[in-house]
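Annual report, structural modelling task.

Input specification for the flavin-adenine dinucleotide complex:
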Amino acid sequence: MANELQSKKDRQGTSSAPPVLLIVGAGASGMLAAVSARRTARSLGIADDRFRIVLIERNLKPGNKIAISGGGHCNITHDGPVDLLLEKGFLKKNEQRFVRHAVYRFTNADLLVLLASYGVQSVVKEDGRVFPASMRSGDVLAAIWRMVEEASAEMVTNMRVDGLEISRDGFEVRAGSAQFTADSVILATGGASWGSAGTLGDGIRLAVSVGLASVPTLPALAPIFFSVPPKPELVGVSLRGIGLLVESGSESDSRRGDLLISHRGISGPACLSLSRSVAGLFASGKAPVMIMADFFPGHDEGALSAFILDHAARRGTQLVRTFLQRCPLASERLAANSDKSTDPSATIPNVFAAEIMRLAGIGNELVMSGLTREHRRALVTIMKRLPLGKVRKVPLDKAEVSAGGISLAEINPKSMESRLHPRLYCCGEVLDYVGEVGGFNLQAAFSTGWVAGIHAARSLLDASHAQTAQE
Ligand SMILES: Cc1cc2nc3c(=O)[nH]c(=O)nc-3n(C[C@H](O)[C@H](O)[C@H](O)COP(=O)(O)OP(=O)(O)OC[C@H]3O[C@@H](n4cnc5c(N)ncnc54)[C@H](O)[C@@H]3O)c2cc1C
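The model returned the following structure:
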């Protein structure tokens, strides 16, 4: 294989040799780039043997992350109009603006139509997440493999690219002792998280080696580990819809959503979403990073204090412990139920009610009428800012994606082409954007890959047409 991929100018006397598009990384973005590149070429009337598309993948099998995505179910994308998808899925405005063009060019609907044409029907969950109807990631992966095959893309597996150089006529790509020449290159090597899947930030290093700027990588969509693990009785407890706060020195951030207490710290949607901020604060090393829970994110301390006072006036003989256990968790309406709700996840879990009492210094047998002003103040403070733990680690190897990567300023969002080197394209998670949990990362990878493939093919084939016309 090594010397087969020579550009047409390198093949002395054979100026009609087909141009070569080399895609590094056969994940979601790389494989869709191959598919869209071939479709573009065919739409221009270029026969397959007049345009070579080669994918180089370091793993034995392409698409590892698609296989493990969504716990093996593959949350392919998110339902709804593109504008809403972008708003929900990309919290940083500059990242949202960057992926916007690509997601409009290849939308969630386009993706589902494409998959359906390969026999993969989809199903939309209540929260907007979209999965294959079979709930099997393998079905999505098999469909994409078939697309790549039908695109007559050459797949080289078990080969790790470790060098990239810009040459007079194109690109020199190295993989150990093997050397390739290509007319155009797409870097689609993914991010730097979950390294066991083959993603160790190689593409970022390759881009930097040819002069592109990068932003340091950080874990995102990750669990958070604490210096002191949660008490055993709290492990496994989930808190629905609460506020999750991070504070470090004068800096803070928050999210609202479901949280799970784990053996080493926390996990669950609110944690995954906040983890990027937490990792950033932790990496800065400026001050300890503390995580807190807000059981009443929709209400300020004044409203909560008035609610407790009012309840104490009406139900003075009720134990404070019972009041807490019947308190609606993260509800928009402040009202304690007369009975423990039939849905236990809708009220403060018993173990947390006990924890709130302990931290507020309130005895187990105290009744509501016995609450002093200090008790009430302490209760409100703890209910709004219950300390969960001091951060020890946000593990990159357990993060679903990485923040950071090739700087967005380096890339034209309409084509995914490097502003510095024409015909070098970057797509997918190798770029410095992060989507939320919910199918947004795969959609962004598919969309940016699709756009990169179209433009890489167009620019190569237009140029090769022009050259052929001159000859
Ligand atoms: C456990 C887990 C679950 C996830 N679940 C979901 C989900 O349900 N929905 C969702 O939207 N997102 C999910 N994600 C995120 C999503 O999988 C990624 O954002 C997406 O796959 C990125 O696509 P990509 O093509 O940019 O990179 P990848 O899919 O990571 O593909 C990059 C490819 O490049 C290869 N490569 C890397 N370096 C080299 C090299 N030097 N030479 C050759 N090849 C190389 C890698 O082996 C890999 O195959 C999940 C991630 C993880 C880790």
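Residues 221-294+391-396 form a domain with the Elongation Factor Tu (Ef-tu); domain 3 fold (CATH 2.40.30).
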